[in-house]
């Protein structure tokens, strides 16, 4: 269970007020934390618990739910051969979160992609510009309220033949 | 004497950028001061599209990510969905997946050595490596029906049984490829021009490599002993015996040596897997997820309805989220799949190894000559289909 996980025990001690949820599903541990504390939690995981490799930063849009977005960090510990997932909720009104670029350089492009496709801003990011879409693009394509066929186009109705 | 910084545009149409990569390079004479990569020319929105398709319909999209290693992409995706579903696949399907995924590693690394060598002036290796790659392509074609876009794995196993003579063809690869690798090494490893171009080029220390999120052979070339197949095993890799090569000098030459050893180890894994290959089913016994056998579809109404339901409606997947990382030829390829209990992924995130590896290009090439940038692009082994998705 997630409660027995070494990292979860340590995080519960250190960040009792910031931890929203800990969960284990299919052998994967997920820790949900308040977004104000996410940088401190990541720092603790990186420096004290040896989760030294930031694999991925991404976001999920739960349109219709509150908070709307969930920023997801996947971490790997190279010395301990272990993985953990950290999530932080972000609301639509305050659509920003602290950037992890101070801890890992790999966060640079990954966060730019999240900004580009999801529209979540990363505070203190050195160069927060679009990366996959063109600079003048309007909207954030991976949001659930962005149509799959693109803006101002007829939706695809299937093959007519 | 006055100096001036020159800005040079490299790509998106440039033979040594391996696709539609555009680099804006700022030069002081011939020395690189700054590199600004521009990507996204090949963005097709695979993550967005997959939210509107059933789980099986997404598999062909994954072929088109890293198009030099399609079956590795299939593998990561089907493993993630199988993890969500919590189903076990038959032993034969597992073994075939290992064989095909390691053949894919060979196929991808052969393109890497071919293009990398061609970029820095060794054309012979290119022709030899493509000759060998053709053998793997032939197996691909016979197994899946396509040379590039295989679409061979299914959630729960494989799309079909292997052809007669598969083992003979793979055995031929196992027997002949080590000799071919000797040829490449004979052409390159002690070649003065090759050494001058690769030794001390694109150096990135172990700490920096981890900090930049570099994975795969590029990480191991920097002396970090980490391989997902061995350290966080998936798909039955724990049953195989193989070495993980690690470099010392963190430069292009060490990454070259690592990849060559990796190719030899891949051949050994294939050989072990061939010995394990036993007859049996290639699809899990999970009728709510897997397609029925073709005889049943053609000869019975129940089979036909079953096939139609799976093809049109797909199958529901329990609510939850999983991340499955695999050791693809280029590094850690991860699929993060979020399910809301319906027949389509709520969110599917692809963690592309090339994308994260490419972000370190400025760190690796800054301060070197413009011509060395070409060697750095080659050693990173990037594929733009995967970077732009």
Topology diagram in text:
The complex is a heterodimer of chains A (161) and B (389).
Chain A: H1 6-14, E1 19-25, E2 28-33, H2 38-47, E3 53-61, E4 69-77, E5 82-90, E6 96-98, H3 107-118, E7 121-123
Parallel strand pairs in A: 2-5, 6-7
Antiparallel strand pairs in A: 1-2, 3-4, 4-5
Chain B: E1 5-10, E2 22-28, E3 31-38, H1 46-50, H2 59-63, H3 70-85, H4 91-119, H5 123-144, E4 153-154, E5 157-158, H6 166-188, H7 192-198, H8 206-211, H9 217-221, H10 228-231, H11 252-276, H12 294-299, H13 301-312, E6 320-328, E7 331-339, E8 345-351, H14 353-358, H15 361-365, H16 370-380, H17 384-388
Antiparallel strand pairs in B: 1-2, 2-3, 4-5, 6-7, 7-8
Helix pairs in contact in B: 3-4, 4-5, 4-11, 4-16, 5-6, 6-11
Short description:
The complex is a heterodimer of chains A (161) and B (389). Chain A is an alpha/beta fold and 161 residues long.
Describe the protein's architecture and organization.
- Chain A is α/β, with parallel strands linked by helices and 161 residues long.
- Chain A has a single domain (2-123), classed as NADH:ubiquinone oxidoreductase Nqo5 subunit (Beta Polymerase, domain 2, 2-Layer Sandwich).
- Helix content of chain A is 19%, strand content 29%.
- Chain A has helices at residues 6-14, 38-47, 107-118, and strands at 19-25, 28-33, 53-61, 69-77, 82-90, 96-98, 121-123.
- Chain A has a 5-stranded mixed sheet. A two-stranded parallel sheet of chain A has the order 6-7.
- Chain A is globular, with a radius of gyration of 18 Å.
- Chain B has 389 residues and is α+β, with helices and mostly antiparallel strands.
- Chain B has a single domain, classed as Cytochrome-c3 Hydrogenase, chain B (Orthogonal Bundle).
- Chain B has 17 helices and 8 strands.
- Chain B has helices spanning 46-50, 59-63, 70-85, 91-119, 123-144, 166-188, 192-198, 206-211, 217-221, 228-231, 252-276, 294-299, 301-312, 353-358, 361-365, 370-380, 384-388; strands spanning 5-10, 22-28, 31-38, 153-154, 157-158, 320-328, 331-339, 345-351.
- In chain B, a hairpin with a 2-residue loop joins strand 4 and strand 5.
- In chain B, helix 5 runs antiparallel to helix 6 (166-188) and helix 6 (166-188) runs antiparallel to helix 11.
- Chain B is globular.
- The termini of chain B are far apart.
């Amino acid at each position: 269970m997630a409660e027995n996980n070494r990292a979860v025990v340590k995080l519960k001690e250190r960040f009792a007020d910031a931890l929203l949820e800990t969960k284990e599903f299919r052998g994967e541990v997920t820790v949900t934390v308040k977004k104000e504390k996410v940088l401190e939690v990541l720092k603790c995981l990186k420096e004290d618990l040896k989760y030294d490799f930031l694999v991925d930063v991404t976001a999920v849009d739960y349109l219709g739910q509150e908070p709307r977005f969930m920023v997801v960090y996947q971490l790997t510990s190279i010395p301990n051969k272990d993985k953990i997932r950290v999530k932080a909720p972000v609301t639509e009104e305050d659509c920003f979160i602290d950037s992890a670029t101070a801890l890992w350089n790999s966060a640079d492009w990954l966060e730019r992609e999240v900004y580009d496709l999801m529209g979540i801003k990363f505070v203190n990011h050195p160069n927060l510009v679009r990366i996959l879409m063109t600079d003048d693009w309007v909207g954030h394509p991976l949001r659930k309220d962005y149509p799959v066929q693109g803006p101002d186009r007829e939706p695809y109705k299937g093959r007519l033949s | 004497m006055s100096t001036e910084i020159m800005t040079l545009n490299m790509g998106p149409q440039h033979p040594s950028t391996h696709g539609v990569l555009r680099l804006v390079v700022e030069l002081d004479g011939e020395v690189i001061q700054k590199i600004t990569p521009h990507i996204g020319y090949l963005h097709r929105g695979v993550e967005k599209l997959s939210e509107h398709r059933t789980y099986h319909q997404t598999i062909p999209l994954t072929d088109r990510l890293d198009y030099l290693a399609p079956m590795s992409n299939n593998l990561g995706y089907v493993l993630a969905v199988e993890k969500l579903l919590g189903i076990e696949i038959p032993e034969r399907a597992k073994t075939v997946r290992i064989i095909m995924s390691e053949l894919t590693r060979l196929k991808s690394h052969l393109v890497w050595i071919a293009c990398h060598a061609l970029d820095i002036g060794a054309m012979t290796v290119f022709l030899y490596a493509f000759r060998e790659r053709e053998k793997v392509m032939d197996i691909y074609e016979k197994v899946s029906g396509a040379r590039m876009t295989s679409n061979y794995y299914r959630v729960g196993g494989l799309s079909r049984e292997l052809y007669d003579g598969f083992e003979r063809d793979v055995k031929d690869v196992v027997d002949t490829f080590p000799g071919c690798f000797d040829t490449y090494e004979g052409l390159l490893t002690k070649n003065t021009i090759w050494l001058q171009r690769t030794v001390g080029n694109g150096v990135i220390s172990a700490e920096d490599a981890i900090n930049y999120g570099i994975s795969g052979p590029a990480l191991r070339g920097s002396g970090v002993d980490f391989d997902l197949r061995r350290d966080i095993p998936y798909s039955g890799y724990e049953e195989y015996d193989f070495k993980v090569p690690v470099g010392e000098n963190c430069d292009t030459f060490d990454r070259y040596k690592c990849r060559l050893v990796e190719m030899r180890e891949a051949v050994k894994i294939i050989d072990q897997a061939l010995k394990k290959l036993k007859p049996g089913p290639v699809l899990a016994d999970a009728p709510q997820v897997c397609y029925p056998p073709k005889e049943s579809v053609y000869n019975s109404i129940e089979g036909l309805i079953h096939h139609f339901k799976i093809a049109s409606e797909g199958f529901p997947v329990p609510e939850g989220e999983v991340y499955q990382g695999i050791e693809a030829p280029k590094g850690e390829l991860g699929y993060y799949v979020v399910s809301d209990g319906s027949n389509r992924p709520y969110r599917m995130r692809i963690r592309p190894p090339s994308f994260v590896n490419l972000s370190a290009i400025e760190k690796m090439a800054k301060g070197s000559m413009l011509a060395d940038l070409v060697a750095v692009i080659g050693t990173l082994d990037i594929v733009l289909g995967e970077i732009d998705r």
